Amino acid sequence: MAEKIRLEVVTPEKSVVSDEAQIVMAPGELGEFGVLSGHTPFMTSLKVGTVRYEDSSGSERFIFVSGGFAEALPDRMTILADSAERRKDIDLGRAKAALDRAEGRLAKEDDDDLDFIRAKAALMRAINRVRLAETR
């Protein structure tokens, strides 16, 4: 059996995941990357997306992250996320409502007070949360 790594996913508010993993896949700013036991140490920034990992029993687990940083070491991976939710904890109704609000804000093209970058980021977070929650 393959060696395992320790996966820690934390936000400024709480620890979201602390688990043993066989493999971790994460949404890096330059593309998705994977980490196995014995990985070369590195750090990278994360974009909005899904962290996937295979736990010690072989089950695939999913975590939504809205950006942050990841540190990979030979025996562990730590993700410091701006925000994070396990797939099972995402409230689909709330996620869809956030998607509707984000789309509504971006539809107001003549709104001088619209912060386009923040509105687009909110839309990306909402889209990813809905997609992940609907893939149960």
Q: What's the SSE blueprint?
A:
Elements: E1 5-10, E2 15-28, E3 31-35, E4 42-55, E5 60-73, E6 76-81, E7 84-86, H1 92-107, H2 116-134
Parallel strand pairs: 1-6
Antiparallel strand pairs: 1-2, 2-3, 2-4, 4-5, 5-6, 5-7
Helix pairs in contact: 1-2
- What is the CATH homology-level superfamily of the largest domain? F0F1 ATP synthase delta/epsilon subunit, N-terminal
Radius of gyration: 16 Å
Provide the low-confidence segments as ranges. none
Judged by helices, strands and strand pairing, the structural class is alpha+beta
* Beta-strand content estimate: over 45%
Cα shape: elongated
> How many DSSP H or I helices?
2
Task: State the domain count.
Answer: 2
Mean pLDDT: 91
Second rung of CATH, namely the architecture of the largest domain: Sandwich
CATH class (first level) name of the largest domain? Mainly Beta
Q: Specify the helix fraction band.
A: 25-40%
Sheet with most strands: 5 strands, mixed, barrel
What's the end-to-end separation, in Å?
28 Å
Query: What string, H for helix and E for strand, traces the elements in order?
Result: EEEEEEEHH
CATH topology of the largest domain, by name, is: ATP Synthase, domain 1
Strand order of the largest sheet: 1-2-4-5-6
Number of separate strands: 7
What report would you give on this structure?
The chain is of the alpha+beta class. It folds into 2 domains: 5-87, ATP Synthase, domain 1 (Sandwich); 91-134, ATP synthase delta/epsilon subunit, C-terminal domain (Single alpha-helices involved in coiled-coils or other helix-helix interfaces, Up-down Bundle). Helices cover 26% and strands 46% of the residues. It has 2 helices and 7 strands; from the N terminus they run E-E-E-E-E-E-E-H-H. It has a 5-stranded mixed beta barrel with strand order 1-2-4-5-6. Strand 5 (60-73) and strand 6 form a beta hairpin. Helix 1 runs antiparallel to helix 2.
